[in-house]
Amino acid sequence: MFDRWYAATLQGRLSRPYVHLLFGARQTGKSTLLNGLLPPETLRFNLADPQERSRHLANPGEFAAACRSLPANRKGQFVFVDEAQSVPAIFDAVQFLYDSDKTRWRFVLCGSSARKLRLTGANLLPGRSLVHHLFPLTLAEHPTGAGRLPRAPSPLPFAWSEGPAPARPFPAWDLAARLAYGALPGIVAAEKQDRAGLLKAYAFVHLEEEIRREALVKNWGAFVRFLQLAAAESGQILNYANISQEAGISQPTVKVYYQLLEDMFIGVSVPAYAKSPRKNLLSTPKFLFFDLGVRHAAAGLTPSSDMVKANPGPLFEQWVGLELWKRLQYLGEGRLYHQRSKDGAEVDFIIEHAGKLTPIEVKWTENPTLNDARHLRTFLDEKPKQADRGYVICRCPRPLQLHDQITALPWSCL
Questions:
Q1: Which pairing describes strands 129-133 and 105-111: parallel, antiparallel, or unpaired?
Q2: CA-CA distance, 21 to 90, in Å (whole number)?
């Protein structure tokens, strides 16, 4: 059992007398985390099991009857439902039971898709629930092994919640391994020779079979072509026209499919930053797969360090973007943006947090120069009141001051 950054926060919140909903992509560790936090006597329903799922679909009243069979307890009896979106009627039953007695049960529901719930109009228990999310591993959970450099700044500090470092961290990886295999807990904990096969199985079983079952995609061949193209284009500004032409589907269908990836928590949209005096800025978002290892497998590639060597820069940029995005989600405030002008001037990422803007440039270099920061300087000049510092994230061995307002930062100090 490895330590997760969100564990302490979630454990504290589970004590609150509400229904708790935990969402996240498959294999991000939701069930493992909850099973480790909930008491042994918890009543558990695993709707990922086809037999149990079919039974509850056929007899929706069984869930409420099982809950009522629990003895009354002043502290509340925990009830855990895994993959709850598979049986949307469960949400109605939970509301009915919760409204009838707010202290008898402590309901904890987790799921890997919001789409089916939205399409069926499922009851997400407004006013009765706290919503949580779990993501692939962050740098705090999956450290480098070398330790953080003292006094190194960070554009978005993300300290370990219970001390300077986890007591049981995941195995330490170098940058190449992170770019090749991603950050799913099961992949990070697996032996190296098994990682590529596990990721390919994930791409087939989840990104294809699970999406087909959950979303009822009708033109399966077109969706598979779209999925491969979307994965290959991950990290780029969305181009619906190109994807439409390559996949042989309409642009409205392309947009629906991209929304499907977000609903299944396997896609991340990074909007364009529009609050600028410049008039030649693009307004289209970037799209990132939630995990680099899954991205490679979905694109039909075999994840490996050799694959990374062919073109590491774009993968490094995606890794930085995903790390910043996950931190903002866990912190519960702020947003991540990008900015690009029609003439190609680009700021890779812009962090909006605590009333401040922090522009980020990502460079695959060990020797950054001020030239690498020229677009950061432009942004800082445009936003003097909101943005007072920018960062170049790269592979330099230690922090370097490139300019009064710009620091080059090793990726391990992010």
A1: unpaired
A2: 12
Whose tokens are 């554009």? That residue is 155
CA nearest neighbour of 389 among 122, 196, 399: 399
What is the band of 215 on the pLDDT scale with cuts at 50, 70, 90?
low
Q: Which two tokens stand for residue 57?
A: 């679909």
pLDDT at position 166 is 80
Look at residue 148 and tell me if it is in a domain.
no
For CA atoms 176, 180, 185, 190, the dihedral sign is negative
What value does the CA radius of gyration of the chain take, rounded to a whole number of Å?
A: 22
By the 8 A CB rule, do 65 and 34 touch? no
- Is 169 part of any domain? no
> Which position has the token pair 């509340």?
76
Q: Is the dihedral of CA 93, 94, 95, 96 positive or negative?
A: positive
**Structure pTM?**
0.93
Residue 33's CB is within 10 A of a number of other CB atoms, namely 22
| Beta-ladder partners of 78 | 106
Are 333 and 401 members of one domain? yes
The tens digit of pLDDT for each residue in 362-385 reads 999 999 999 999 999 999 998 888
Please name the residues in contact with 74: beta carbons below 8 A apart, sequence gap of 6 or more: 103
Q: What's the total number of domains in the chain?
A: 2
Q: Are 33 and 7 in contact (CB under 8 A)?
A: yes
Q: What range defines the domain where residue 120 resides?
A: 7-133
* HEC profile of 273-334: CCCCCCCCECCCCEEEECCHHHHHHHCCCCCCHHHHHHCHHHHHHHHHHHHHHHHHHHHCCC
32 phi/psi in degrees, rounded to 5: -60, -45
In this model, does residue 161 exceed pLDDT 70?
no
Residue 386's pLDDT is 92
Whether residues 332 and 187 share a domain: the answer is yes
pLDDT tens, position by position, 111-120: 887 776 665 5
Q: What is the pLDDT of residues 27-43, one digit of tens each?
A: 999 999 999 999 999 99
Report the percent of the chain where pLDDT is more than 70. Answer: 92
- Write 297-300 long-range contacts (CB < 8 A, 24+): 297/196, 297/199, 297/200, 297/202, 297/203, 298/203, 298/207, 298/227, 298/228, 298/230, 298/231, 299/228, 299/231, 299/232, 299/234, 300/228
